[in-house]
Amino acid sequence: MKMHNVFKTHRKIEVDNCISLGDTLPQSSFIEFPTYKLKSAELLWVNKSLVESYGLNPDDRKVSECILANYSYVAKGYCDKKYIFTSDSKPFLADRYGSRHEVCNSGSARCGLNGQFQIKGIGVNPLLADNMKETHTNGKLFTDEAILEAIWERLRA
Question: What is this structure's pTM?
Answer without folding.
Answer: 0.87
